[in-house]
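Reviewer has doubts. Consider these tokens.
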Amino acid sequence: MSVRGRDLLSLVAVAAVVVGTVVPLVGQAPAARIPRTADGKPNMTGIWQAMNTANWDLQAHAARMGPVVALGAAFSVPPGPGVVEGNDIPYRPEMLAKKRENAENWLTRDPEIKCYMPGIPRATYMPFPFQIVQSTNTIMMAYEFTSASRVIRMNSKEKSPAPAWMGWSIGRWEGDTLIIEVNDHMEETWFDRAGNFHSDALHVTERYSMLDANTLNYEATITDPKVFTRPWKIVMPLYRHVEKNAQLMEYKCVEFAEELMYGHLRKQPTAK
């Protein structure tokens, strides 16, 4: 057999191996790789975290210098491609002016700096992990930042007793997707450090879908007719912590913000 003939056979053999390896993987249904609970629902119990720069700015943004010159690069803003579908947040004209004002006064206005609970959806993509504990009728989500938490009541018609920092969450399953309707938010929460904000009319529809055992697809549709001209959506993956000692640590930041918040009320020392 000629060298060319042997080379051709080798290529055919390699192609056969590649086809035999790839085709079955492509043909597998994603659902087959998803862990499930006893009642057949996707099992999302675990510790998750976003790996993006959405907490700095939901929209696409370049790297820029931070607000504290003395910290140099240590407090700069990392670049990001954005998580807003279409990269457009449809503010009403008068509300866009407020957003810009918020951004210019970020160091004194951002509720994150004051250690307020972050609200939904911001708690999901802050640079801190959060934990999902799933049962049949209730899902608990605990967040490392400020030790915030919320209860998702499944298929409930129970009404919110009052506005809350983490809103009021009612969940349901549509196939393998967990859908959570969140309303009754405190209007003081923001979406990011870029000054994106909402009113007390905010309604968030969250969608959690497992792409595989360790990856969630997260979508949140934002509706607030007082601030925006139409609903808009953010989309991002969330990743499961798989390290052996994965756990939520305690990050109670109130004491870090006390001087900022209340230092001006400090009693002046008595003059000698």
